[in-house]
Amino acid sequence: MKDYPVKKMRDTLIKTERKNVEVMESSGNQASFISFRHSYKSMSCFGGKTYIKSKETRFENGKFESEEFEGTMDQSVYQNRTKELQNTFSSIMSSFLKPFSLLLPFSADDDDEDRRSRR
Fold it and tell me: Beta strands 36-46 and 49-60: pairing type?
């Protein structure tokens, strides 16, 4: 590799003139240009108890805030919430797939009834 024909040239540093920067303090009533929110919630069931955890973090108007919560409840809370979520999911999927049902062939029971009514 010593005979490699290309050699790297030395980088030269150039000093630049810097202007004085005016620092302005932010006021709390002005809307900041950046804000975010992050939340996390979980629910689990062990040993007949429902464990709930929640964490929310946000940065708004130049303030960083964080909240956390942990608690336990009866097992029925978990079971009721699970049933609600399953029913909601099945209704959403039913609404989504309903237009596609027109593309499916009729069932065998419907065909038999149609043939009988035609005779």
Answer: antiparallel
